Amino acid sequence: MRTDILNTPNNIHVKQEGTGFSSGTFGELLQGVLTNNKPFLVTLPINRYSKAIFKPDLAKESIDIKPNFKVKAKYLCEMILRDNKLPLGGSLEIESTIPIGKGLASSSADLVAVSRAIESAYDFTLDIIKLQQYLAKIEPTDGVMYSSIVSYYHREAKLRECIGNVPALTIISHDEGGEINTIEFNRRYYKYEIDIKQEYELLLEKLVTAINKSDYKGIGEVTTRSAILHQNVSPKRTLNQMIDINNEINGLGVVVAHSGTYIGILISQNDEEYYTKLGMAKKLISKLSDHVQIMHTINQGEN
């Protein structure tokens, strides 16, 4: 008899432990509102992760969560178990390298990791549409359940379009400080004039083309414009300085966490002057912040 399998009263085979992972996203390549009046974003998956470990306990009918402030993860766990008629007891532990309240999808990554851990423990696959329906009941969510770059209606937790594979980029970034509550941020109302909505349509079209043609400079032009447009919603105090640094090192562009506190500069990992640009960017950004952070995009299958 296998030692990693338990038998439930309903003859459901369950592992003693299931593990799930999800990556975060460095803010968004683009975020705004389209002419259909729907808020949207475009993801940028990075090498920061949430890990969930779920251990079923057939002798219990409740979930123990660690750390105990991860209440949204516990709520999702309970919904999945209940709706799929699975035993309701167990322990759930979340580990993460994604900072909280910074716009890097820490909460969304936690939730996706939880779903994957339960799927692993009970050896079943949760339909991704159903997962998104669960997430929509909890909070606006990023499209981190998709490993490619996607455009996403985050307030509805619905996929708009799978755009393409993630280009090999490095983000030299810093945190401007503070925390932003995603739920509260998305409750705010901002009036977008029709010309701005039309510009977002054009930017999204340009971004899709740039990603599919590996036009890295084109990607950076869109991310920079998105950051500038978002200054009226959630301003970044160092945006102008970061644009100047990007221009000085001949980077691709500036990218921001639109509903967060991070701002960075994009460079291609295939650039012949990669290490020179990386060093210059770190040195110049260190004049703005004591904590320069280097992050990298992840390609499909790495998360």
Describe the structure.
The protein has 303 residues and is an alpha+beta fold. The protein has helices at residues 71-83, 106-122, 128-136, 182-187, 194-212, 216-229, 239-249, 274-285, and strands at 5-7, 13-15, 18-25, 30-33, 39-42, 45-56, 63-66, 90-96, 149-153, 158-164, 169-175, 253-256, 262-268, 292-296. It has a single domain, classed as Ribosomal Protein S5, domain 2, CATH 3.30.230. It contains eight helices and 14 strands. Strand 12 and strand 13 (262-268) form a beta hairpin. Residues 1-9 have low confidence and may be disordered.
Keywords:
26% strand; four-stranded antiparallel sheet; disordered N terminus; 33% helix; single chain; kinase; 303 residues; alpha+beta; four-stranded mixed sheet; Ribosomal Protein S5, domain 2; 8 helices
Topology readout:
Blueprint: E1 5-7, E2 13-15, E3 18-25, E4 30-33, E5 39-42, E6 45-56, E7 63-66, H1 71-83, E8 90-96, H2 106-122, H3 128-136, E9 149-153, E10 158-164, E11 169-175, H4 182-187, H5 194-212, H6 216-229, H7 239-249, E12 253-256, E13 262-268, H8 274-285, E14 292-296
Parallel strand pairs: 7-8
Antiparallel strand pairs: 1-2, 3-6, 4-5, 5-9, 6-8, 9-10, 11-13, 11-14, 12-13
